Amino acid sequence: MAPLTSPGPAPTATSGSQLLVAAAGGAPLLMRQLFDADTGTFTYLLADVSSAEAVLIDSVFEQHERDLSLVRELGVRLVACLDTHAHADHITGSWLMRQATGCAIGLAQVVGAENVTLPLSHGDAVDFGGRHLEVRATPGHTDGCLTYVLDDERMAFTGDALLVRGCGRCDFQQGNAQSLFHSITEQIFSLPESCLLYPGHDYAGRSVTSVAEERHYNSRLGGGANERDFVIYMANLHLAHPHRIAEALPANLRCGKPRASASGASQPQLTTENWAPIERSYAGLPELPPSWVGEHLDAVQLLDVRSSEEASGPDGSIPGSQLIPLPELTARAAELSAERPVVVVCHSGSRSALATQKLLKAGFTQVANLRGGLRAWNGVGLPMVQQLPSSNA
Questions:
Q1: How far apart are CA 263 and CA 258, in angstroms?
Q2: Which of 206, 292, 312, 321 has the highest CB neighbour number within 10 Å of its CB?
Q3: pLDDT for 93-121, tens place per residue?
């Protein structure tokens, strides 16, 4: 079996349109806030519901499969993967996302990073469907910091320039406290007080704030603090440098593209399965489409975890399947070969999802759920048999 070399094309703009409308709660814009616990990083997916076009802001390399799964499951077409700046604490997933979907890579032009296809400057607009993000230069944390403001000014994505009750540090990457003070007060605090602000990081469970709150309560420059107050405050922080800075900065100046050599601790890597075109669901489950499984039945173990009555009932079974009902799987897992990949199936993909998790915990490394189960298998017209004998009969 040939391994998958790319995750394949993005969904069309019309696929899953009803799902997208519902997922957005009936609103014209869908927004999802995602979180990487290891680095305290927020990633944001914005989608224009009418066109199903979307942008992703501040992706994380290690969360690429999660983010790509969400894009696929919602049925949106990613037009751009944007970064608010060249991060020092994590590696961006923008290069991986471009490889997977063909989206543009957006970053401040002043950064001078490799592989950028959408160099951005103050006043630019990033379009997605009928919506757009206004690009505002907000240097000071780094000289290439950008804030992305939604077209109706109801929300803005501030990266590390402005955090919840705080702001980005100014002591490396061309940081400058005076510049940051003016960036925040003139470019972010000039937005309507009701504008919601979504930060690039938080380490205390705070996910969103507003212009009004930060003007009043930000400990570094709110409540009437002036530029002198802010500059002195920032000069006395004395923070340790981010522990991944030596790894993250060079990688982010390539937009997260891995180096040609696989050696060296700074080389970013994703753990990927190479026995099949595995796609992980947003829930994190390894899955395979019926079409691929149907073409490779001789190379996998097909495990049916329905009951004996179901397997011999009107729904039928897939030829060559081995029947081990889900309640019996833990006790009978040794009946499966550890040398051949296992594809698990049930009626809809639900019980087989649990079985897949159980096999992974039991040490099976090459295992995947049949996406959509027998319903999906039948939906594409693949062959069935009417009776499947139990393996211990």
A1: 11
A2: 321
A3: 999 999 999 999 999 999 999 999 999 99
